[in-house]
Each structure stands twice: as structure tokens, then as C-alpha cells.
Amino acid sequence: MTFHAKFSGYADPALHAAGLYIGGKWQSGSGITVLDPSTGNLLAEVADASIEDAQRAVDAAHAAAAGWRATPARQRSEILRRWYQLMTQHAEELATLIALENGKALVDARGEVAYAAEFFRWYAEEATRIPGEFRRTPSGSHNILVDHEPIGIAVLITPWNFPAAMATRKIGPALAAGCTVILKPASETPLTAYAMARLGEEAGVPPGVVNVLTTSNPGGITNAMLADSRVRKLSFTGSTGVGRVLLAEAAKSVVSCSMELGGNAPFIVFDDADLEAALDGAMIAKMRNAGEACTAANRFYVQAGIHDAFVAGLTARMMSLKIGPGYDPETQCGPMITQNAVRKIDRLVSEALAAGARATTGGKPLTENGYFYPPTVLENVPVNASIAREEIFGPVAPVYKFESDDEAIRLANNTEYGLAAYIYSRDLKRAMTVGKHIETGMLGINRGLMSDPAAPFGGVKQSGLGREGGVTGILEFMEPKYYAVDY
Ligand code: NAD
Fold it and tell me: What are the distances in angstroms from CA 342 to CA 315, 368, 482?
């Protein structure tokens, strides 16, 4: 890997890894360019794995599998705990690397590193508490004993929007369960993944237990790995479209899949909400990572009595944000990941404006270098506009007015997605009653942020299959084995 001289001062050079990481060896290479989204300039170049490299990664994961599975849980736990400590020690360098390659504001990048490291701490703890069962059948015929075994080699595919946390949310439980893994990070943000692999090496992760490869041919490489009968798990985080393709591919060899896919979160504000609290929550739910989050509030449904005050307050807050490169410590809203992302946001906003919406701030891309879209608030948006159906993945808040609780529920559920939702109301009974009817995997009540390593993260409908984090996350990487026992 080469790291562009202009930017090398921003991050600890010791964290700049050399390229593909297979079987505990670093293999240098080139072919994938990493751009600084705030300028479009070249940041670094990393290795481009071939199908043969992917096969070598499966070989390495296989060679390490028996040893890792047999390693006592306490020892696996201590390695994860050291990895957590190293990430914490190197938090500032990792945050800078994330801000550089992803573009998110340093404050968000620091939050991500802390969140990411917590998955290693949580799964260091969970590694020593893998559950089992022992009971008698209802008929009294015999005993049921259930053990949980590591599922086998896991392929982990992660998106660019949380380059550290999406990786640790998979590596943590997989290693705790006793699985070996091959991580394929997004090619837009590979530097963080390689830097974390360096820290894993230092933490004592044995060669082959974690392998990392970047590629310009994700489909070809993933299909080759899924076709290898030694691979037993695919854990994917990314768009619903790619998730569907991978589910079909995994079906060919009946590989177990965990899918963390797209979202279209409704953010419902009732008349009785605490306005300031709702605005604080809205800013977090919308603007963390400049809107590039799967849990980002995508549709603001605001009850008629509080609507105008909410729009005015949100507009003032969005207008006050400082736009700039993520690595500038003053920045509150960084660039989007690519020019294509800006084009998509521009299309959704333009269509909404043409259909009768009004921008109270923002509304068109900035003309400076880099992939910037300004914080934008839209009001009077038709409820069937494309911006209400598609993931915006940017700093745009469309606001829709509603009258009754039933209408809010109907609007909130009018989507193929079901990842996250938010409700603001001072009446907890009302919030819980409405919440019960909302089709979602996660619901924030009077909170704009719900992610926590100790809680189950995931969606219903087309937002995914399975849960990451929490006490069940480790079971995604295990198979129950039932022993029928008589004695
Ligand atoms: P993406 O689906 O384009 O890419 C995700 C990953 O899949 C990348 O590593 C990419 O290289 C890889 N990929 C692409 N095509 C592939 C193929 N044919 N075979 C194998 N791998 C392939 O998504 P993205 O643009 O990187 O990320 C944004 C999306 O991720 C959004 O939809 C967002 O909602 C979703 N997301 C979901 C969660 C969640 O936990 N539910 C978290 C973060 C992001």
C-alpha cells in the first residue's frame, strides 16, 4: 500500500499496513485507489485481490480453524480484550484514518472508534459465557443436551460508512465463537480495516484467524469463497440490492447468512413531544456521519400542532453546521463518499422539489471541489415522493405533516424496509403503543441514537436477517448441536 505523502502526517505511519493480510503475512500490491472525498485527490493505493488470493485466504482460515476452535474461551477472550485496549490506545490515529478515507467529521470518527472497540470488549466478555442447555424431554424418554459449536469459516463483507465498527461487530462475535474469518472491507475505505488488522496482530490474534483482502471484483471473489464447502457463514452489511444477490449465491451451497441491509427510518414527532429534545434527537438521528448511516432518519413525520416550530428549529440547526473535510477539527458535516452519492441525493431532492416540496435551507449540491452536499430541510414533501421510498444517505431531512396516531403508523410502515424508527412524545404509553405497531427491528423512544454493542442490532422486512451485538450476536457464528442422552 502507498499512502499519499500529503496526507501521511495525519495518521500514525505505523498503522499504514502493506496490503492483503493472509495467513498472518502482509502481501503488498496495488490496483485499488483510495480517494479523499473532500478533494477527490488520491489518498492511497491498496492491493487488489485476485480469486487465487481469496482461495489462499480460505486455505489460511482453514489451516488456523482447528487451533482457534480448540483455544480456551478465556484465551480467546483475552486476545479480544487486548485488541480493544490497542484500539483505544490508537483511537486518535484510527479516527483520523476514518476521517480521511470516509470523509466523516472527526467527532463522528472518534465516536465510531469508541463504538467499534466496544464490540471487542463486549465479545471478550461474551466469549466466556457461551450458553448450553440440559433438560428432560416432556415424555421423560431421554435427556436433551444442547451444545453450541463454532459454525466454521466466516466471510465478512462490510460497507464504507462505518469502516471500523462494521468490521468489529462481525470479527468480535466470530472470534469469540471460535470461528476464523476473511474480512472484505469496502474498497472506498480499506485503510481502517488494514490498520485494525495490524493491531489484531499485536494483540496476539494467531496467523490465519483473521484475514483481510480488498478487491475490485467483490462479486467474483465472494462467489468463489461461497462455492468452497469449507466456508459456512456469510455475514454481510451493505445495501439490500447486494444482499439479495448474495443470498441467492449463498443458497447454492446452503451457507448460513446474516444480513444487515438498508433502512428508511421514520422519525415521528407528536404534538406532546419536548420540542428541544426532539430537535436534539433529530440532529443526531439525521446528521451523525452526515446522514450516511443505515439508521439515519430518512422521513420526518411531524404532527400538525408542532410541525411549523419543528421545521423552523431544524432549519436553524442545519444552517448552523460547519461544512468541510472530515479531518478538519472544526467540521460538523463532511463530504459524501463519492460523486455518485451526491448525484443520487441531488436527484431525490430535485424530484421532491419538482413535486411541490420547498427547501427551507440547502437544496442543491455545493460547487466546490470534493463531494459536498449541504445540510438541507424540505417541507411540504408529497408522501409518495421517491425521497420517501429510497435511502437518501445524505444530510437531507424531508418533513411530512400528519394528523392522527393511526396515520403516523400507516406512513411509517409504508416502506419495504424495517431497520430503525424513532418516536418523540412525553406520553410513554402513547409512544409504546404506537411503537408496537411499527414494523422495525429497532425503535428509539425519545432518543436519536440506539446503537449499543450490548443490544441486538438488525432489521425486519427487507432490512435484513439476524442480529448483531447483544447476547444473541455470538450465536450467529455458532451451530447448536443436540445430543439425545440416556444414562
Ligand atoms: P454496498 O452493498 O454497495 O456494498 C457493501 C459491501 O459489499 C462492500 O464491501 C462492497 O464491495 C461489497 N459488494 C458489492 N457488490 C458485491 C457483490 N456482488 N458480492 C459481494 N460483495 C459485494 O453498500 P455500501 O454502499 O457500501 O453501503 C451502504 C449501504 O449499507 C446502505 O444501504 C446502508 O443502509 C447499508 N448499511 C446497513 C447497515 C446495517 O447494519 N443494517 C449498516 C451500515 C450500512
Answer: 20, 12, 51
Tens-digit pLDDT profile for residues 332-345: 999 999 999 999 99
What is the C-alpha to C-alpha distance for residues 129 and 124, in angstroms, rounded to an integer? 10
Q: What digits encode the pLDDT tens for the residues 53-69?
A: 999 999 999 999 999 99
For the annotated catalytic residues, the residue numbers are 260, 294
| CA 243 / ligand 1 centre spacing (Å) | 8
Say if 2 falls within a structural domain. no
Cα-flanking dihedrals φ and ψ of residue 361, to 5°?
Answer: -155, 155
Ligand 1 nearest atom to the CA of residue 160, by list position:
26
pTM: 0.97
Same structural domain, 416 and 473: no
Cβ of 391 closer than 6 Å to ligand 1, yes or no, is yes
Give the domain CATH number at 281: 3.40.309.10
Distance 80 CA to ligand 1 centre (A): 25
18 vs 214, more confident: 214
Shortest-distance Cα residue to atom 41 of ligand 1: 260
How confident is the model over 169-228, as pLDDT tens digits? 999 999 999 999 999 999 999 999 999 999 999 999 999 999 999 999 999 999 999 999
Q: Could you tell me the maximum CA-CA distance found in the chain, to the nearest angstrom? A: 77
Q: Is residue 1 part of a domain?
A: no
Report if residue 97 sits inside a domain.
yes
Ligand 1 binding pocket includes 360 (Cβ within 6 Å):
no
Atom 32 of ligand 1: nearest residue by CA position: 239
Sign of CA dihedral 400, 406, 410, 413: positive
User: Which grid cell is 256?
Assistant: 448460513
Indicate if 188 and 335 belong to the same structural domain: no
Q: Which residue range forms the structural domain that includes residue 349? A: 265-452
